[in-house]
Write a structure and sequence with these properties.
By secondary structure, the chain is an alpha/beta fold. It has one domain: Alpha-Beta Barrel (TIM Barrel). It contains 9 helices and 9 strands. Strands 3-2-1-9-8-7-6-5-4 form a 9-stranded parallel beta sheet, with helices on one face.
Length: 224
């Protein structure tokens, strides 16, 4: 199972995120990821760095790290534009980009409303997701954020991984029986136990939130 961390992107500048990527690379982690939000959920007064420029800088800075948004939400930009963002990142980091995509939900809807972005219904968002994923899957690994059965079915049809946010290892194991899965979520109290359980459940990645203890992730990796 590969290990990654989300970057601290709810900042006015990129220094913290770049330093975190440096730390992850030095520890031998596999990848770093960035949120794709216009602001932190529930905090419209706070900033949020755009993921693709930041990941481009990190991809050029560390040629051993996999990079990707977690997840790029369809509908924030036009689908052709979103596809080109991934392809541009891939040009900077060949074989090191993951196209993690999601439809968004009611929790992210206020971001769209604030910027006058269309309020698409779930089926419309799934159509955009399918368009982007089916275009990108021949060029890079695609992850699709777990959602309604119809959303998960798109991943199964395309052979994409289903990204499971903070699912238990038991639920991960059940989902992995249907196709490839990866896990992301907050740092658990029993980190090593959880990582072992996720590995045994069939998760291909574990991606932790920005507060993840890099030294402990290095220790877990060394023991494998």
């Amino acid at each position: 199972m590969k290990l990654g961390v989300l970057l601290p992107t709810f900042r006015y500048g990129a220094d913290d995120a770049l330093a975190r990527a440096d730390e992850a690379a030095a520890a031998g982690l596999d990848g770093v990821f960035a949120y794709d939000h216009l602001w932190p959920m529930g905090s419209p007064q706070r900033p949020s760095l755009a993921p693709f420029p930041l990941l481009s800088a990190i991809a050029s800075r560390h040629d051993g790290l996999v990079v990707g948004p977690l997840v790029a939400r369809v509908g924030l930009v036009g689908t052709p534009h979103l596809i080109e963002e991934f392809m541009t990142l891939l040009a900077l980091a060949p074989d090191r980009v993951i196209a993690a995509l999601g439809t968004g939900d009611k929790l992210s809807a206020p971001e769209n409303d604030a910027y006058g972005l269309p309020a698409l219904d779930p089926s419309q968002r799934r159509d955009l997701l399918r368009e982007a994923a089916s275009t990108l899957v021949s060029s890079m690994p695609v992850w699709i954020g777990a959602g309604a059965p119809a959303t998960n079915q798109i991943a199964l049809e395309l052979g994409a991984s289903i990204n499971l946010w903070d699912w238990s290892s038991e639920r991960v194991a059940a989902m992995s029986a249907t196709g490839p899965v990866c896990w992301a979520g907050p740092v658990p109290k029993d980190l090593f136990v959880t990582l072992n359980a996720l590995r045994d459940a069939g998760s291909t990645w574990a991606v932790l939130t920005p507060d993840a203890p890099i030294d402990q992730l290095r220790e877990w990796r060394a023991a494998q």
